Amino acid sequence: FSQDRYPHVKRGDYTSLDADHLNFFRGLLGEGRVLTKPEDCEAYNVDWIKNVRGYSRCVLKPKTTEEVSGILAFCNERRIAVCPQGGNTGLVGGSVPVFDEVVLSTALMNEIISTNDTSGVLVCQAGCILESLDSHLANHGLMMPLDLGAKGSCHIGGNVSTNAGGLRLLRYGNLQGSVLGLEAVKANGEILDCLSTLKKDNTGYHLKHLFIGSEGTLGIVTKVAIQCPPKPKAVNLAFLGERKYIILTFTSNCVDSFETVLKIVRKAKRELSEILSSCEMMDELTMDVVVSHLKLKSPLPQHPFYMIIETHGSNENHDEEKMNTFLQNIMDEKLVLNGTATSEVSKMKNIWDIRERITEALDRDGYVFKYDISLPIQNFYSLVPAMQERLGTSAKRICGYGHLGDGNLHLNIIVGEFTQDILNKIEPFVYQFTSQLKGSISAEHGIGFRKPKYMHYSKSETSIRLMKELKVLMDPRGILNPYKVLPENK
Ligand code: FAD
Ligand code: MLT
Ligand code: ZN
User: Fold this and answer.
1) Any ligand 2 atom below 6 A from CB of 355
2) Where are the chain's structural domains?
3) Ligand with minimal distance to 166 CA
4) Closest ligand to 411 CA?
5) CA-to-CA distance for 428 and 456, rounded, in angstroms?
6) Of the bound ligands, which one is closest to the alpha carbon of residue 147?
7) Given Cys at both, which of 35, 231, 238, 272 links 40, Cβ 3.0 to 4.6 Å?
8) Which residues, 6 or more positions from 17, have their beta carbon under 8 angstroms from its beta carbon?
9) Three-state SS for 361?
10) Which of the listed residues 92, 124, 161, 363 should we mutate to test ligand 1's pocket, taking the one with most ligand atoms within 8 A of CB?
11) 452 lines ligand 1 (CB under 6 A)
12) Same CATH fold assignment for domains 234-358 and 363-448
C-alpha cells in the first residue's frame, strides 16, 4: 500500500518481523504491551491530519528505559526498523511508520519523577502528556514553558524530539533552552544519561542537543529535565481586529497597512515588554473555518485580520494598566479597527479555543497541505497572497495564521481531495519562495517524512553532510525512524 502511495520511497533492507521476534517482545514486555492485531495497530499507523500512513503490524509499549534499551538492542542486532511515537500529533508525517517499521510508543512511560519548587525543575518520563504536566505543575505554582493546541495528546518526549514551539515561545523560549537534561537510548540499546538538572553545566559537548529536534532519528528520549517558569498571577488577553494588509511585492517589504501590523508588534514588544507572553495572528479565512466547522463564536465582527496579544505577569493592577495603555495607544493611532480585552478566565479560554483549534477545523474542511514557515517579520504574510494568486480557484481555501511575534507563518491550503497536480503547483514553489526571502521551510513542525528532499532550501550542503555523518555515528544500521528527516543520497 505505502509502496503505491509513495513511489519515490523504497523499503530499506530491513528484516521483516517473524514469530520469534514477537515472542521476544512478549517475553520482554508481557502479552498486553505488544499489539499485533490490525485494528489495534490502526491508530498508530495514521498521522493526525491523515496525510500519511504506514502498515506496521507491531506496536510496542515499554514502561521503562531498560525495556526501551532491550527493544532497541534486539532490533539493532537483527536490523529491524523502529518508528518512535509519542502522542502522534506531529504534522510532518514523522510519527507514523512508512512501511512495516515496529512502532515504539511512549504512551505508558508517563511517570513524573520529581518537581523542585525552588529551582522550578521538573523531571519526568518521555510519555507524560503536556497538559497533565502543566496541571501537575499548577499545584507547585509553576507551569510548562510551552503550550500548544495539541497539549491534551502530545507527549513531552515528542515535544522535545520535535523541539516544538507553540503559542508562547516569544516569552519562554524554545526547548533547546528549557530542557536542562535528558536521558536517551541509542540505536544499539545503550542508555545515555544526560539527565542533568543544573542550569549551568559547560562540561564538554552538550549532547542533549543531539536529541532535541532530531525527530527520533538519533535515539529515543526516555526522560527529560525541564526548567519551568512560575505560573503567572495575572493574565490579560486582547483580541484585535485589523484592516487588510496590502502586500505590494513578494520580495520587498510588505508595505502600507502591513506597516501598521509591524507597528503593533513593535509597540507590544516595547510597551508590554517583560509581561508580553504571546503575539499571534489569523486571517479572515482562518476565522471562517473555525466558526463554520466548530461553531465557535468570534468575539469581534468580521475583519480581514485578527491578532491575539497576551500578557503574563505577577501584579494584576500593574499588568492591566500596561495593557490598557497599550490598547489605548494603538486605538489612538488608529492601528486597529476594533478590539476587546479581558482577564476573565472563561472569556480568555474562548479566545484561545479559537486559536488553538484552527488545526482541527482545517482538518474538517478537506485535505490539508500544511506549511510551517519562518520569514523575516516584514515579509510575514507575503506567502499567502502569493499562493492565492498562484492557485486561484483550484484550492478550496488558502489561509494564514501563526506566531506573528516569532515570524512563524502557518500557510494552509485546503482542497477537496489530494491530487498530484495541485501538489506540483504548491511544491517546490512554496520552498523556493521561502528560501528567496531567507526564511526557514520548517519553523517548528520539523522535517519528518514530508520534507527531507526540500531541506536544502534551508540548509547548506555541508550542514546536511554533517547531519548524515552524525546519523551514521549514532545509528550505523539505520534502524531509527528511517525515511525521515535526512534527504536520500542522490
Ligand atoms: P509524535 O507526533 O508522536 O512524534 C513526533 C516526532 O517525534 C516523530 O518523528 C517521532 O518519531 C518522534 N518522537 C516522538 N517521541 C519520541 C521520543 N520519546 N524519542 C524520540 N523521538 C520521538 N507543533 C508546534 O511546534 N507548535 C504548535 O503550536 C503546534 N500546535 C499543534 C496543534 C495541533 C492541534 C496539532 C495536532 C499539532 C500541533 N503541533 C505543534 C505539532 C505537534 O503537536 C508537535 O510537533 C508535538 O511536539 C509532537 O508531539 P507528539 O508527542 O505528538 O509526537
Ligand atoms: C499552530 O500554531 O496552530 C500549530 O503549529 C498547528 C498548525 O500549524 O496547524
Ligand atoms: Zn504553530
Assistant:
1) no
2) 112-227, 234-358, 363-448
3) 1
4) 2
5) 11
6) 1
7) 35
8) 57, 58, 80, 100, 102
9) helix
10) 161
11) no
12) yes
Q: Which CATH class is domain 112-227?
A: alpha beta
149 CB near ligand 1 (under 6 Å): yes
Here the ipTM equals 0.99
Do residues 378 and 438 lie in contact, with contact meaning Cβ atoms separated by under 8 Å? no
Residue 23 CA, ligand 1 centroid: distance in Å:
30
Query: Kind of pairing, strands 191-194 and 338-342?
Result: unpaired
- Residues 32-41 pLDDT 10s: 999 999 999 9
Encoded amino acid at 368, one letter = V
pLDDT for the residue 6: 81
Q: If you measure from the C-alpha of residue 159 to the centroid of ligand 2, how many angstroms do you get, rounded to a whole number?
A: 13
Is 217 near ligand 1, meaning CB less than 6 Å away? no
Domain 234-358 carries which CATH code? 3.30.70.2190
55-72 per-position pLDDT tens digit: 999 999 999 999 999 999
| CA gyration radius, the chain | 23
Quickly name the fold that domain 363-448 has.
Alpha-Beta Plaits (3.30.70)
Is 359 close to ligand 1, i.e. is its CB under 6 Å away?
yes
**CB of residue 157 inside a 6 A radius of ligand 1:** yes
Which atom of ligand 1 is closest in space to residue 47's alpha carbon? 2
DSSP states of 185-212: E-TTS-EEEE----S---SS--GGGGTT
* Ligand 1 site, residue 88, Cβ cutoff 6 A: yes
**Measured between alpha carbons, how far is residue 124 from residues 174, 224, 342, 376 in Å?**
18, 6, 34, 36
Could you tell me which residues come within 8 angstroms of residue 362 by beta carbon, excluding any fewer than 6 positions away?
289, 368, 370, 397, 399, 412, 414
Residue 243 has pLDDT above 80, yes or no: no
Ligand nearest to the CA of 370: 2
DSSP conformation letters of 404-437: GGGTEEEEEEEESS--HHHHHHHTTHHHHHHHHT
Measured distance CA(211)–CA(194) in Å, rounded: 11
